[in-house]
Amino acid sequence: MRETTTSDATRREPLVLDAGQVASDPGLRARFAGSAHGILADLVRGGAALGWVEPPTADEVARLLDGVVAAVRAGDASLRAAYVDGRLVGLGYWLRYARPTHRPHADLEKVAVDGAAHGQGIGRALTAALIGDAERAGIEVLTLDARGDNTRALALYRSLGFGEYGRLPDFVAVGERRYDKVFCMLDLRRGR
């Protein structure tokens, strides 16, 4: 595999890089946490269900990403970043379950795409790359949960083979509003 450079990340079509590729490019590495914070904070500000009620601070996002990168280095996670025209437009990651009896399983924690890039296949490209990483890491079951009103994300996950295995009605409280928490899974053992 050839080395990926910043010039590769300035092409017009989406380029999905893994954590190692982002880290090996000084230009991308220097801007990654700040760009990720911008995407996540804007999405949460707009009401996106990403685990925060209020937009996260830059420090919160930097700490989160540091933890994910440490898990990637230990072989317990995957982090993917999508670029268009040299600009970060999406990111996603999964983390392996820590309990010894659950190590063959991982949770798709976040897939976030800049609002201006919705509808361009970036979420699909990120999620497909993360699924491929999970298969290569020996993950048997990839799980996720989503807020019930996140119909676009749930449709995307279904189209990639995830099935719903549970739902907690009115579980998520955002102010006075209540939403279902939907649990989905992708069984990666079926191909083995």
Kindly describe this structure:
The chain is an alpha+beta fold and 192 residues long. It has a single domain (8-191), classed as Aminopeptidase. It contains five helices and seven strands. A hairpin with a 2-residue loop joins strand 6 and strand 7. Helix 2 (26-45) crosses helix 3.
Features:
192 residues, seven-stranded mixed sheet, Aminopeptidase, alpha+beta, 5 helices, globular
Brief account:
The chain has helices at 19-24, 26-45, 58-73, 122-136, 151-159, and strands at residues 15-18, 77-84, 87-96, 105-113, 141-147, 163-174, 177-187. With 192 residues, the chain is of the alpha+beta class.
Shape: globular
CATH level-4 homologous superfamily: Gcn5-related N-acetyltransferase (GNAT)
Task: Please provide the ordered H/E string of secondary-structure elements.
Answer: EHHHEEEHEHEE
Question: How would you state the average pLDDT, rounded?
Answer: 91
Rg (CA only):
16 Å
Strand order of the largest sheet: 1-2-3-4-5-7-6
Structural class: alpha+beta
CATH architecture assignment name? 3-Layer(aba) Sandwich
Number of helices: 5
Give the CATH class.
Alpha Beta
The major sheet is characterized as:
7 strands, mixed
Note the topology:
Layout (H helix, E strand, L loop, with lengths): L14 E4 H6 L1 H20 L12 H16 L3 E8 L2 E10 L8 E9 L8 H15 L4 E7 L3 H9 L3 E12 L2 E11 L5
Parallel strand pairs: 4-5
Antiparallel strand pairs: 1-2, 2-3, 3-4, 5-7, 6-7
